[in-house]
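User: Predict structure, ligand S-adenosyl-L-homocysteine.
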Amino acid sequence: MRIPRIFFDHTLNVGQDYSLLSDRAHYVSNVLRLSAGRPLIVFNGRGGEYEATLLAAGKKEAALRIDRFVDVDRESPLRSRLAIGLARGDRMDWIVQKATELGVTAISPLYTERTEVKLSGERLAKKLGHWRQIIIGACEQSQRNRLPTLHEPIEFSDFVSQCQASRKLILHPGTEGFSLDTAGQDGANSAAVLVGPEGGFSDDEVERAKVHEFLPWPLGPRILRAETAPIAALALLQHSWGDW
Ligand code: SAH
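Assistant: Predicted complex:
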């Protein structure tokens, strides 16, 4: 049976016991339904993972002992940043989960001309907390030991003017400019990918991105949904320059 993995946001030392409170204790005891004595893998997002033993498992409190540090990370050599027009409903949840599985390094939700969602104050804080939980779940499942960075939503024009990456790409149907065939040959190790919202990017946005050295990247003759395009792009990038 696969050993369950849990994220624990805490400095960890081998040989030491730790209490898990509230949601982590609930996750171990009620969701994973583990009982005392079971082995666990614990990671804290600061690199590597820890073999651990569950000492006690209750509804509100659990405890574990850290047995051994294993110096392993499963990060891609390609640093990838996904900047994506904020999508409605639970589409962003899906994108955040899949992008994390695919090894994305950072995610920036974008406000674009055709973005219909605006988030601020308490709603924004709640959403960011919700997406962080999705990232944690995807790292537990996919065996990543480092959490991708989740940035606050940013205006399109600010993102394109500030973005630093060795390859800057804007996904836009029916364009020309970027080809994967030759792109990785100069040792590029970081890529930023812009993906539009459901309504796509305006021509003006595509032009503005080009001014800041973003290359338009077409993904074939079919129009992909806003949640499909970033997944296809990340898979292609991992294949060409990453660890696939
Ligand atoms: N109605 C919009 C399509 C939006 S699809 C239009 O016609 O422009 C949402 C986003 O997915 C797009 O803004 C683009 O970033 C990406 N996308 C979808 N299909 C694509 C394709 N074939 N090539 C490149 N990008 C694509």
